[in-house]
Design a protein that fits this description.
166 residues; mainly beta; UDP N-Acetylglucosamine Acyltransferase, domain 1; 1 helix; globular
């Protein structure tokens, strides 16, 4: 098992040593929810921007390279046995757009993103703040998810639309 993580506020590191070394590094950098039985894989060049205490990743979940998890003040919860393809973006924060305000005056909108168990997110999927994806859902490549997705359904497109049930 290889664990790779990149943090915005920490230097990049790649660990492919024994679990003893991984546990030492995980404790030093306060990386939560990763242990030998967990078997979570977060690939190299993925970016996680926020406190690690605000992210939960289920057992046997894979997050592939180039994925972007942005949740500075929000929270991201990913269920067990999920497959997240390359370059997926999960956003738990954004700025509100209010007419006649400059960018400096815009207020940050913070929410929670919940990905259920056994979910498959295709390459380049974008999940916007406040969205929940139900168990065993499949999101097609390049989809932009703006609304909640029920369990056992396939969605795709921009914005993501219902395709069929599983």
């Amino acid at each position: 098992m290889h664990v790779y993580k990149t943090f915005r506020y920490l230097p990049s590191f790649a660990v492919s040593y024994s679990w003893h070394i991984i546990n030492i590094i995980a404790n030093a950098y306060r990386i939560h929810h990763i242990n030998k039985t967990h078997r979570c894989h977060i690939s190299y060049k993925s970016q996680i921007t926020g406190p690690v205490s605000n992210i939960i990743v289920g057992a046997n979940t894979t997050i592939n390279s180039g994925s972007n998890l942005r949740y500075k003040n929000g929270m991201i919860q990913i269920g067990k046995c999920c497959r997240i393809a390359q370059n997926v973006t999960l956003l738990a924060q954004t700025y509100e757009t209010i007419p006649n305000l400059t960018n400096a005056q815009a207020q940050m909108k913070v929410s929670k993103v919940v990905i259920g168990d056994y979910v498959w997110l295709g390459a380049n999927v974008v999940i916007l703040p406040g969205v929940s994806v139900g168990d065993r859902a499949i999101i097609g490549a390049n989809a932009v998810v703006t609304t909640d997705i029920p369990a056992n359904e396939i969605w795709g497109g921009v914005p993501a639309r219902y395709i069929r049930s599983i």
